[in-house]
Amino acid sequence: MSEKRDNKIKEFMKFRGNVEPSNGEINILGQMASKYENKSEEELFDELQRLNGEMAKEKEKYKRNMDSIDHMKGFLDEEQKRKLDKIIDFLNPSVKER
Asked: φ and ψ at 18, to 5 degrees?
């Protein structure tokens, strides 16, 4: 795993409230990020739509998760960020009001 990705994961973990992520946590998040790296836009949209339905059942947890998704943009290039913004707006229009 690259140092750049490790730093982004550490930043994300701090955002989520875990100030000192372990190497194991960094590896797990890196593996999760890699899982979606080569997915098509359609595959990602399908997965987000599925997860959105599950997450919406618990409003506070849903908000935290949507915030986390938004924060993970640091892993994406500009085109991917633009696409993710469109999906987030579709799934939860109130996110863009932050």
From this structure: -100, 95
